[in-house]
What we know:
Blueprint: H1 14-19, E1 23-27, E2 30-37, E3 46-47, E4 54-55, E5 61-66, H2 73-78, E6 81-83, H3 85-89
Protein name: ATP/GTP-binding protein
Amino acid sequence: xxxxxxxxxxxxxxxxxxxxxxxxxxxxxxxxxxxxxxxxxxxxxxxxxxxxxxxxxxxxxxxxxxxxxxxxxxxxxxxxxxxxxxxxxxxxxxx
Length: 95
């Protein structure tokens, strides 16, 4: 019997695929792209700018960057920050 030259397609990790899609948020402090990082994909330690505490590996959190940066998209991506979900949701818009 001849072997098929076709192999089964690789299984898609839907959780990982959905987590990589940034959401758009409008707020008094600007336009933001917000990407959710799942516990499974959180592999480094970051400092949350909202509370100045560590976001440890294995902790679900957000990666946030400006969509309306004066310096362009690449500069905004380079300046992205990792936030605790609660810190991002309760950040102050008062300046």
